[in-house]
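FIELD: query
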Amino acid sequence: MQIYQNTKIASNKTLYISGQTPSKDGITPQSIEVQTEVVLEKISSALHEHHLTVDDLVKITIYITDVSYLPGLRSKLAEFVGESKPTATLVVVAGLIDPAFKVEIDGIAAF
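FIELD: result
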């Protein structure tokens, strides 16, 4: 199932969302699924602060520390993006700022 598209036309105004990490209230969950949920909740909150929704996301960049996390990440991401399907880049990195972090996602929204 495809959860992204190769191109998406954006309007003049854009919101850039910094990389969101999976720590909440000083706690980092262990599973990639729960870490992804925390990250996506933070992205959703950032969008809502500007009266935007996931449909306004035009680009996301996903950083994971192990390719084996991809199935768990994809399931949560598919639920989040639904039919909006922003463009996406996936990067497997050696590590993130905290060794407990398995995923980080940034985004660009247009309005």
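FIELD: remark
The two ends are 27 Å apart (CA to CA).
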